[in-house]
Predict the structure.
Amino acid sequence: MGTRGAPSRRRQAGRRLRYLPTGSFPFLLLLLLLCIQLGGGQKKKENLLAEKVEQLMEWSSRRSIFRMNGDKFRKFIKAPPRNYSMIVMFTALQPQRQCSVCRQANEEYQILANSWRYSSAFCNKLFFSMVDYDEGTDVFQQLNMNSAPTFMHFPPKGRPKRADTFDLQRIGFAAEQLAKWIADRTDVHIRVFRPPNYSGTIALALLVSLVGGLLYLRRNNLEFIYNKTGWAMVSLSYIHGSSQAQFVAESHIILVLNAAITMGMVLLNEAATSKGDVGKRRIICLVGLGLVVFFFSFLLSIFRSKYHGYPYSFLIK
């Protein structure tokens, strides 16, 4: 039974093959070649993407921000495939351009890129680069860009949208603001680490040392500091001892004291709201705090001397 069944099955298969249309074989062959070509193209695309990511990681290992010319910009940013986000600062740092804002923005950009490069969350999904006008004029022309500095985000897929251009004029270019904008566009959160700046502390220490040294060298000629009679004469000459009267000079003194306190408050507000260098902001804060504390203490001391029995004082009695 088994021997006679085999020829029968072969004859049925032969009939089915004869019943296939003669035009089906080229179609099947074309479909097979197309699948092979698509598979090869996909493999080639994956290899190209791996090479681009490997090259970008190598550049990032050397420096947190790598510079790009026109060819590199077109290859790594404009041309697909790409599965990473790229933050690009378009700037003009050459001395002949005289762009002081570009230098300040570059300092903040360096702080941001270094914070990302040396963070534990660093990966190959986000890179920082720079295009200088003198190195990539064609890129500026291609993007119709006529101002610098400008920060742009190039997403992994598609073209940049309007929100992918950082609003520098309205927000400023502080590293913290840039990090917030990047988090909105890429979901990558960067914690900004600023290098310690001891310029304000050093300047204050030098000032204190200088004053202390001068006082020490002139220690035998400082009797006027301890002369209570002299200080009393000064106070009696310009500050009336009663709350019922006031000298003309006393009015001007009070005006100057209030102006100094107001200036200190203005400096404190400037240090808190500005987005400049941290060292300068620290110095401004110290100066403003010193003005408020000293002159408010002086004003309180005058009030205490006029209103006898007033119990409160601060620094100066």
Summary: The first helix runs from residue 2 to 19.
